[in-house]
Specification:
Elements: E1 4-9, H1 10-24, E2 28-32, H2 34-38, H3 42-51, E3 56-59, H4 62-70, E4 77-79, H5 88-93, E5 98-100, H6 103-116, E6 124-129, H7 144-153, E7 157-163, H8 176-193, E8 201-202, H9 206-211, E9 219-222, E10 245-250, E11 253-257, E12 262-263, E13 269-270, E14 275-280, E15 298-301, E16 304-307, E17 317-322, E18 331-338, E19 341-343, H10 345-352, H11 356-362, E20 369-372
Parallel strand pairs: 1-20, 2-3, 2-9, 3-4, 5-6, 6-7, 7-8
Antiparallel strand pairs: 1-10, 10-18, 11-14, 12-13, 14-17, 15-16, 15-18, 18-19
Helix pairs in contact: 1-3, 10-11
Bound molecules: pyridoxal-5'-phosphate.
Pyridoxal-5'-phosphate is lined by residues 32, 34, 80, 165, 205-207, 221-224, 231.
């Protein structure tokens, strides 16, 4: 195996979910494990989240739900967007919960349910998504009652929830979240007036659940906080949350170089005195963004922060270790803790002008995941 790994602390995921479940109760938790569990491994994350008290799992794709089913996970799984017509038989056969927001989506799902033999005794759970301002997906509020009526009228479908999604929940001072809530509650009132029962209401992602307690309703859909990261600088995670992923490698090569030498492609980094350079066998093909070069990016070696030297290449990067004693095989931590020091995915994100989500989802499949249970 390559001397690199993304270590996933499953006890951190379990304990994060338990902390969040207690925080949001009596609302329940949907643990979002799309995109291979934000890079942590969907199946292992799903099991840890269920052990921590998650009630429902969220995925983006039917194929992601099928992966959970193939691993023997039988908890309810919600596909968060309306699946394409070509995926519906699969969705129904895999016993996934569906999201709908168009009349054609409801009709096609009803037809798939009938083909697979789901009827009044065993209808497909359907979650109706309303666009209250995100403008990504969802039925327009004025059309929500008619769409809900279509779901209720189909014997193969069961209206399980009505939900929406916030655009700016991670900026807690923005009044638009409250405006989205007003629009959402107006739709709920319309449905009630039409005599349509809504068994479950949900709106909040991680930021919404933390920063807007009044938006928790019956369920919150938590992604980033499950993995121990804060939704944004303005919305910190609750106390006790622990990042679940660390990225490590073993030094593959070491050399002393004189002062005044250029380093790596473009020779953009110059040694200002004689120094020890360590080679680390991770590069941009592993998800260490090349743009991190020259932003002051650092790694941990021997419990100290040391700068990444020069351009990050596809498979390798260089670290300026100065006079630190370092040998082939020594551990380098790119994300995580070593000694008393720590580097978080948020730090990379800040350097790169992005969000921690993109960092953890970007650690490529080429990096072996090592799942472990840390008893601490
Ligand atoms: C991805 C996603 C979430 C989770 O978002 P976080 O910010 O990671 O908590 C919740 N709801 C929907 C609809 C999503 O697509």
């Amino acid at each position: 195996m390559r001397p690199v790994s993304a270590d996933i602390d499953l006890s951190a995921i379990r304990s994060n979910v338990a902390i969040l479940r207690d925080l949001v109760a009596p609302a329940r938790v949907c643990a979002v494990v799309k995109a291979d569990g934000y890079g942590h491994g969907a199946v292992a994350t799903a099991r840890a989240a269920l052990a921590g008290g998650a009630h429902l799992l969220g995925v983006a794709l039917v194929a992601e739900g099928a992966e959970l089913r193939a691993a023997g996970i039988d908890a309810p799984v919600l596909v968060l967007s309306q699946a394409s017509v070509h995926e519906l038989d699969d969705l129904v056969a895999q016993r996934l919960d569906a999201t709908v927001y168009t009349p054609a989506g409801v009709a096609d799902l009803g037809a798939a349910a009938a083909r697979v033999g789901r009827g009044r005794h065993d209808p497909v759970p359907v979650h109706l998504k309303v666009d209250t301002g995100m403008r990504r997906v969802g039925v327009q509020p004025a059309d929500a009652v008619a769409l809900a009526r279509a779901v209720v009228a189909d014997p193969g479908l069961h209206l399980a929830s009505v939900f929406t999604h916030f655009a700016v929940a991670d900026e807690p001072d923005d009044p638009f979240t409250a405006e989205q809530q007003r629009r959402y509650e107006a739709v709920l009132a319309d449905l009630a007036a039409a005599g349509i029962e809504v068994p479950c209401r949900h709106a909040a992602n991680s930021a919404g659940a933390l920063a807007h307690p009044e938006a928790r309703y019956d369920l919150v859909r938590l992604g980033i906080v499950v993995y121990g990261l804060s939704p944004s600088a303005e919305v910190p995670g609750p106390p006790g949350l622990r990042p679940a992923m660390s990225l490590r490698a073993a030094v593959s090569h070491v050399k002393r170089v004189p002062a005044g030498e250029g380093v790596s492609y473009g020779l953009r980094y110059r040694t200002d005195h004689e120094t020890t350079l360590a080679t680390v066998p991770l590069g941009y093909a592993d998800g260490v963004p090349r743009r991190l070069s020259g932003t002051g990016g650092e790694v941990l070696v021997g419990g100290e922060r040391r700068p990444i030297a020069g351009t990050i290449t596809m498979d390798q990067l260089l670290v300026d270790c100065d006079d630190l004693p370092v040998a082939v095989g020594d551990e380098v931590v790119l994300i995580g803790a070593q000694g008393g020091a720590a580097i978080g995915a948020e730090e990379w994100a800040d350097r790169l002008g992005t969000i921690s989500y993109e960092i953890i989802c970007g650690i490529s499949p080429r990096v072996p995941r090592r799942h472990r249970e840390d008893p601490s």
